[in-house]
Specification:
Number of domains: 3
Oligomer: single chain
Strand order of the largest sheet: 12-13-14-20-16-17
Structural class: alpha+beta
Order of helices and strands: EEEEEEHEHEEHHHHHEEEEEEEEEEE
CATH class of the largest domain: Mainly Beta
CATH superfamily of the largest domain: Golgi alpha-mannosidase II
CATH topology of the largest domain: Immunoglobulin-like
Largest sheet: 6 strands, antiparallel
Helix content: 25-40%
């Protein structure tokens, strides 16, 4: 166990990377990550040697850097070509510096007491605009370039206020496709009731004519159907799959007026699963077919343990977009059903 993040880049050879709950087969061109709180074993194939580089990392922003590359608790191995991982790391460090510049300098309008993010810069290179710009306003928090905290929370309130009741409100967009971003935006920051409200709104106007008559009804716009599926599976159900890693993370985002939802026979790679959320405190996963899945069951809030089939397991506490949640990872073999829930 180490106090740092350890990255290993395998240049030549093959071997194994073993954690408490799973084993990865490692070959040349792959990179594996060990978290600070993990016990891990990695070894080359018997009678052979492998060559690898390793880097020790620490700091408050390292975890977000690593997640940007593609690492997570569910997927601690990624593939790379040549020196591209080092290029990614360099790019991430530069991106982090750019994000700081955006939040602390570029997006700041000193004379604005409310601190709304600047969304545009005039061609004169001086004049800044932080009024409501519809998509240009909500793309910033949606793409996570705004830093979580009070300023971002206030900005989400500002967006909600300007949207009013949708099409017809003074400053709201007139095209339905603009609204397809809103559930994703509000789910991201755990504003689930607001996200669900806009899902319902999209359904309520799908039969109305699009602002461009030749387009037909709103519901014929291609973006409506596939983003709505996204809002159900990734949004409400909080499903985050990793097909190559055979992992699945879930986080219920059901609003208070939805007590229970089941996603039936969802294909994830070679697997089929059924997932049920009961409120935000209990989830049940069935692995109907395919290989064993590593299921990371997540719940909002900070808890020391999570019950898995009534047995308490130590929980990990994580944060995303300023929202804390607790999680536990368990294997779910084909044909098994496992229930995870918060302790009473």
């Amino acid at each position: 166990m180490t106090e740092h993040y350890l990255l290993h880049f395998v240049k030549e050879g093959n071997g194994y990377f073993r954690l408490a709950d799973r084993t990865y087969r490692i070959c040349a061109g792959q990179c594996f990550l060990i978290y600070p709180d993990q016990l891990a074993l990695y070894l080359t194939d018997p009678g052979k040697k492998w060559e690898y580089y390793w880097i020790m990392l620490n700091g408050t922003k390292i975890l977000s850097f690593l997640e940007t590359i593609g690492f997570s608790r569910e997927n601690q191995v990624i593939s790379f070509q040549g020196e591209e991982v080092f290029s990614h790391l360099t790019g991430i460090l530069q991106s982090a510096a750019l994000k700081d510049y955006f939040n602390d300098d570029w997006s700041v309008l000193p004379e604005d007491p409310q601190g709304h993010f600047v969304r545009a810069l005039s061609t004169d290179g001086i004049t800044k605009y932080n009024d409501f710009g519809k998509e240009t306003s909500w793309f910033m928090p949606l793409k996570r370039i705004t830093r979580p905290g009070r300023r971002n929370d206030a900005y989400l309130d500002f967006i909600r206020e300007k949207l009013g009741s949708g099409i017809g409100s003074p400053q709201a967009p007139t095209n339905i496709e603009s609204y397809t971003y809103l559930p994703e935006l509000f789910f991201l920051y755990d504003r689930n009731a607001e996200a669900w409200k806009w899902m319902q709104y999209i359904l309520s106007v799908k039969e109305l004519p699009h602002e461009i008559a030749a387009q037909g009804p709103n519901g014929d716009y291609p973006e409506i159907s596939f983003t709505f599926l996204q809002h159900v599976v990734e949004g409400l159900m909080g499903v985050t799959p990793n097909v190559p890693g055979r992992t699945l993370a879930t986080l219920s985002r059901l609003p208070a007026d939805i007590g229970c939802v089941t996603l039936e026979e969802q294909e994830i790679g070679q697997n089929r699963i059924t997932l049920t959320h009961r409120g935000r405190s209990a989830s049940v996963l069935q692995n109907l077919s395919g290989d064993t899945l590593q299921w990371t069951a997540r719940f909002p809030g900070e808890y020391q343990s999570i019950l898995v089939d009534r047995q308490p397991l130590p929980a990990r506490i994580r944060e995303q977009c300023g929202i804390a949640f607790s999680e536990v990872t368990v294997p779910v073999e084909m044909g098994r059903e496992i229930r995870a829930e918060l302790p009473v």
